[in-house]
UniProtKB/TrEMBL annotation:
SUPFAM superfamilies given in the database record: Ammonium transporter
Span of domain Ammonium transporter AmtB-like: 19-134
Protein name: Ammonium transporter AmtB-like domain-containing protein
InterPro entries the UniProt entry points to: Ammonium/urea_transptr, NH4_transpt_AmtB-like_dom, RhesusRHD
Statement: the UniProt record of this protein carries the keyword Ligase: no
GO cellular component: plasma membrane
The species this protein was found in: Chrysotila carterae (Marine alga)
Segments crossing the lipid bilayer: 20-41, 78-98, 110-127
GO MF term list: ammonium channel activity
Pfam families documented for this protein: Ammonium_transp
Keyword terms, alphabetized: Membrane, Transmembrane, Transmembrane helix
Protein family: Belongs to the ammonium transporter (TC 2.A.49) family. Rh subfamily.
Keyword match Transmembrane: yes
Membrane topology: Multi-pass membrane protein
Amino acid sequence: IFEPLFSEASWSERIEMDVMALLNAELAVAAFLISFGALLGKLSPKQLVVLIIWESLCYCAHKKLILERWLDIKDCGGTIIIHMFGAYFGLACAYVLGPPSSTKKEKASIVSDLTSLIGTTFLWVYWPSFVAGILPPGVPRELALTNT
């Protein structure tokens, strides 16, 4: 939603919602999920909604202004945009929020262990197509598929 704010398009143009816009949105959601991992148990659902709106604005500004316009970085695999931004944003928010108020319920459970195993398996299987989806057909896409 915020990405057209930082592009060269004028305010009178329509926002195009095509496949590339949806793929870029999926990459943004991956950054949000990485930040979410640092904030589990610290925020209520309402606070998470506010945080995601703020993070999406910061993510788009970081991607469009800093990486693409000022530094001219092309990040097809999402190493800088997704992983570094998501991790540092989540850690900064966790630092600002401070330590959790209570740690009485910190135990491993079979459900959480199985859920993380299934999630890791899906990530391992689908990550190459996720990364290569935004690349044009041809050699760059094939290299991204084989190198991930």
